[in-house]
């Protein structure tokens, strides 16, 4: 039996051990999906805390229950380690590490490169590597392929390489990792066949495409599509506010059309690891082909400007109440980047807090997912979440809704806030509510 046939047999029979590299919002749910499907999973991360948490059955991601994780970790179906030499134990290497932007808004592949450097000494024939990190078209073939060839392996014969972009939506109870269709591209036809065997056992539907570059571009298209449409809504929000038209009412009316229209909604800016970042991966790569992607970059500029717009609306609302932003007590509701999650990555609420702080406002926040303000790269506030009640709300000069968690008591907020700056369209317009 040749190497390819043997690996496919092991994957289909679930005798293969799955290695997941990067145990964050993508990696841990994926590891759980494989464990639920009957595989043995070994997770890898440089963070000792994550490894110890998984091994003791304690989840550090809100939408993954510790009891469910413990069910698999206690049976050794999921284990985690910081020892990358153990890559030799696994049959599949799935890389789910971050791909942020540099300070110059250029792709930062340092996490992918560091992962490859750590695992290369111990890879062996009969393994498959799948990259899931979002990146520009060509990354798999330009960054990973040469390293494997340099080790002496023949791609598609004794080693296999695929790209399958992650599609996670934290907080969305309608979907989980196993039920979201998965795009897959292989470096060769044999690679794609191995990749299908890897994912088809744990994912309900796998969508094969002709190459890793097509799969990489598919992920970028998905997120650019959202970025551009949200950018359009954010630009219209500014215009309709000036025209004294409620954009949310307009959207609700427009979405009754049963064809040709999909609703997108404005907000205080873009957050998460995908939409604020991924479009810039393509704009950077486009320069290699002599193109300036103006449409994509314009949407990025509009979306990036929204935190400043929210603060401007706050300043205006305070002025109407004969108050200055400096010294005013401002409450920010929600610091997660989207509702019903404990994910603060690239959250526009953090930027709003930064701007308010720079203008001399006395800032506070309330978010049930963050009892204490987390230590993150862009900000370090010594703050604790405020408990929302009539007494606490009345202490503030203005309340800004930045993340519309379903757990907030909106009637309580409305009845006890002096001024509300609503960036999510959650409140009906009234004397003390301003759209932003």
Strand order of the largest sheet: 3-2-1-4-5-6-7-8
The CATH architecture of the largest domain can be given as 3-Layer(aba) Sandwich
CATH superfamily of the largest domain: NAD(P)-binding Rossmann-like Domain
Number of strands: 13
Measured by DSSP, the beta-strand proportion falls in 5-15%
**What CATH first level of the largest domain would be assigned?**
Alpha Beta
Largest sheet descriptor: 8 strands, mixed
Helix content: 25-40%
Could you describe the 3D structure shown?
It contains 14 helices and 13 strands. The protein is α/β, with parallel strands linked by helices and 436 residues long. The protein has 2 domains: 3-210, NAD(P)-binding Rossmann-like Domain (Rossmann fold, 3-Layer(aba) Sandwich); 247-435, Rossmann fold (3-Layer(aba) Sandwich), CATH 3.40.50.720. The chain has an 8-stranded mixed beta sheet with strand order 3-2-1-4-5-6-7-8, with helices on both faces. Helix 1 runs parallel beside helix 7, helix 8 packs parallel to helix 11 and helix 11 (294-320) packs across helix 12. The longest helix has 31 residues, at 212-242. The protein is globular and about 80 Å long. The mean pLDDT is 95.
């Amino acid at each position: 039996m040749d190497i390819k046939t043997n690996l496919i047999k092991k994957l289909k029979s679930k005798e293969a051990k799955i290695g997941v590299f990067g145990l964050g919002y993508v990696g841990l749910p994926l590891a759980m999906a494989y464990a639920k499907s009957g595989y043995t999973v070994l997770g890898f991360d440089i963070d000792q805390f994550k490894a110890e948490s998984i091994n003791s059955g304690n989840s550090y991601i809100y939408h993954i229950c510790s009891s469910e994780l413990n069910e698999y970790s206690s049976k050794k179906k999921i284990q985690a380690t910081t020892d990358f030499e153990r890559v030799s134990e696994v049959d599949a290497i799935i890389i789910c590490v971050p791909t942020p932007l540099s300070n110059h808004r250029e792709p930062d592949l340092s996490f992918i490169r560091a992962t490859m450097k750590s695992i290369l000494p111990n890879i062996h024939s009969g393994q498959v590597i799948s990259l899931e990190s979002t990146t520009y078209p060509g990354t798999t073939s330009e960054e990973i392929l040469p390293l494997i060839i340099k080790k002496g392996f023949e791609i598609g014969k004794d080693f296999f390489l695929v790209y399958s972009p992650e599609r996670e939506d934290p907080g969305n109870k309608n979907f989980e990792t196993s039920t979201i269709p998965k795009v897959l591209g292989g470096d060769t036809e044999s690679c794609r066949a191995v990749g299908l065997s890897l994912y088809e056992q744990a994912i309900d539907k796998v969508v094969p495409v002709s190459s890793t570059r097509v799969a990489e571009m598919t992920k970028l298209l998905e997120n650019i599509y959202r970025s551009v449409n949200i950018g359009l809504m954010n630009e219209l929000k500014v215009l309709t506010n000036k025209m004294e038209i409620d954009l949310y009412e307009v959207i609700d009316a427009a979405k009754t059309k049963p064809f040709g229209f999909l609703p997108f909604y404005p907000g205080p800016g873009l957050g998460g690891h995908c939409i604020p970042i991924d479009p810039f991966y393509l704009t950077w790569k486009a320069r290699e082909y002599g193109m300036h992607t103006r449409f994509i970059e314009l949407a990025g500029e509009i979306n990036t400007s929204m935190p400043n717009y929210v603060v401007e609306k706050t300043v205006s609302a305070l002025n109407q109440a004969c108050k200055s932003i400096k010294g005013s007590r401002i409450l920010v509701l929600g610091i997660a980047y989207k509702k019903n999650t404990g994910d603060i990555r690239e959250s526009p609420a953090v930027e709003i807090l930064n701007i308010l702080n720079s203008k001399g406002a006395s800032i506070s926040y309330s978010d049930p997912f963050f009892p204490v303000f987390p230590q993150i790269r862009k900000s370090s506030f010594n703050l604790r979440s405020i408990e929302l009640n009539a007494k606490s709300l009345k202490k503030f000069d203005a309340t800004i809704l930045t993340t519309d968690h379903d757990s907030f008591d909106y009637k309580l907020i409305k009845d006890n806030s002096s001024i509300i700056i609503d960036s999510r369209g959650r409140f009906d317009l009234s004397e003390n509510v301003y759209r932003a």
